Amino acid sequence: MKITILGCGGSFGSPLAWQRHGNIDINNKRNFRTRSSVLIEINNKNILIDTSPDLRKQLYDARCTNIDAVLYTHVHSDHTSGLPDMRAMSLINNKIIPAYMPIDMIPEMEQCYKYIFKGEKDYLPFMEIKELEKSFNFHDINIKSFKHNHGSIDVQTYKINKFAYSTDLKKFYNSDIDNLKNLDLWVVGLLRENEHPSHAGFSQIMEYIEYLKPKKTVFTHMTALLDEVKLKNMCPKNVFPGYDGLQINL
To answer: Rg of the Cα trace of the chain?
Structure first.
């Protein structure tokens, strides 16, 4: 299984805008972050988690011309609004692409992207909504999912084999965190060092890491308040900030 971090930035990306650099060193290319999404290559299938607003360039840079399925974490636009770019993937490969999402996402996605899922006027549908289950098989790939808290809404954590992805994380519910023990790789959202109303801060995420003890942890969904080198120096060697284009083989 190969994991590619297509984008690891927060909703604004990093840096924010022209000469709005936050706390990052702009001479470090790894501090230039597009919005968060990840590509999983497993059993000759390409599974995409979220369709960020930067999806077209992300897939181009990854030299990816085929997506077999999309898994959605939540409805926020920095995780969904690149959805129209999936039309090219559908046309190139002449197929309808399944989009797995929690039931609470479905009405808004159908309303906002009717032409994608239902077709409209001259547009034929090119994706199909699949209601997310806690555990399901996609071409013999077992995918597990559960909700975690993101402030006023919930977000899906996804787990495939010993890889898991938890973006936009504030806290876990009940004992759900125990589903993430014995991981080879955990990709987890870290918006900024300080706590945020909808995101855990650095100290809380590190407490989760110390409890779970994954072999590797990679941060994603980072704002321009987090400099790659400074953050790396705050962490043990097996915990580090991601960067656009990072590939990890499991």
So the answer is: 17
